[in-house]
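[step 3/7] fold_predict: job queued, chain A
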Amino acid sequence: MHLLISSPPSQTATSSCCPQCAAVMSIRLVEPDLKDPLKARHVFECQECGLSRAYLMITGEPSQLAARPPRGGQWNKR
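[step 4/7] structure written:
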């Protein structure tokens, strides 16, 4: 069994390389993540074989990320 391993495209990428056939994958959809407003789902589709890949990208500013509480919603108090 072969494993298809590829690195995710950058946040600003509009195309990527298909891990299945090595053709060009174009961006088809960008939508906000419903669970996290600082992330968006980027969907790429291969022009040759039709393979789709979705990547969850961080879209918020670094200052917004630092000011966000960790999962669970509370900061650790020392």
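[step 5/7] annotate
The helical segments are 62-66.
The beta strands are 15-17, 24-32, 39-46, 52-58.
exit 0
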